[in-house]
Amino acid sequence: MIDCREARELIPWYVNGTLSAGEARELAVHLAGCPACRTELADAIRLSIEVKTAVSRLPGAPERIREKVLPQSEVPVARLDLGSFFLGLSLGLSVKGNKIPVQGNLCLLGRRLKLFETKGGRHGRS
Amino acid sequence: MGDAAHLLEQAAKGDEGAFARLYDRFADRVFRYALTLLRNRHLAEEVTQETMLAVWKGAGSYSGRSKVSTWIFGIARNQAHRLLEREARAHRRVEEPLFLPDPAEAVGKEEAVSNALSTLPASQREVVFLTFYEGLSYPEIASVLGVPEGTVKSRMFHARRKLAEALR
Question: What DSSP element (H or E) covers B143?
Fold first, then answer.
């Protein structure tokens, strides 16, 4: 059997539903017989809602963080093919974030073999 | 949160799409946590950026013993304290008045709650945030904060008393 002090310590996590089944049961038994702790519970429920609402109104992470953190996917912008299906060369230009990588391939019987790839360096302000 | 654990597992294998989904799920929450803890927008941005980069680079070190959110908030807290120490060494004041996105939208009660939260020490503020906004259990909060469970309960007890006084 828990006392009022223990009950009041547990109430916030009773409100957010994360107490163990045993703790929740003990607290429920205490609350059933203690009007003062039931008032504490009502206050905690109200506070929980108010905090959730206030925090939800805070701004989210700015988009510029996303741009800095997420690996940029590569978008092809141009390709030059020379030769034929049997033997040829291709040069590809793409944009990856603020970089412009270039890739050269040898095409042999429809299969593409990478000859070189530049990282593209930084483009614009870092 | 099994889904988040799966995304983290995929991110550990270099799956950029999985990490992007993980970023979308956690970035705002980490930012709001940092903002609640530090009350400084620039530092909160720095914490969010460093935390999410650490998640990407360290996804493979997630052991699965805790929830993904507990692991990520633990990283965010370490980042926040690293910045606090840096700012303290430079004798810079960290906390600034916290603003709402659009003051015209702020209704009286929310502003009162936000102001009341500001009066709490950061150590109590984060317990209130992690309990009522993030819905973490007190053992999980103890794990994020690296303190005994009794300390979490005691911080919440004092925080609620102060908030009740401030909101009376």
Answer: helix B138-145
Domains located in chain B, CATH noted: 1-96 (1.10.1740.10), 105-168 (1.10.10.10)
Q: Which domains does chain A have, with CATH numbers?
A: 4-56 (1.10.10), 71-117 (no CATH)
- DSSP of A97-108: TTB--EEEEEEE
pLDDT digits (tens, 9 = 90+) for B43-65: 999 999 999 999 999 999 998 88
Question: B residues 40-79 near A, CB within 8 Å?
Answer: 45, 48-49, 52-53, 56
Amino acid at A26: E
> Over 50: is that where the pLDDT of A125 sits?
no
More confidently predicted of A10 and A112: A10
Question: Mind listing the pLDDT tens digit for each residue in A101-123?
Answer: 788 888 777 677 778 777 665 43
ipTM metric: 0.85
**Residues A41 and A13 sit within 8 Å (Cβ to Cβ):** no
Q: Is B103 on the interface with A (CB under 8 A)?
A: no
Strands (E), B25-66: none
Contacts of B15 in chain A (CB under 8 A): none
CA distance B129 to chain A (A): 8
- On whether any CB of chain A is under 8 Å from the CB of B19, the answer is yes
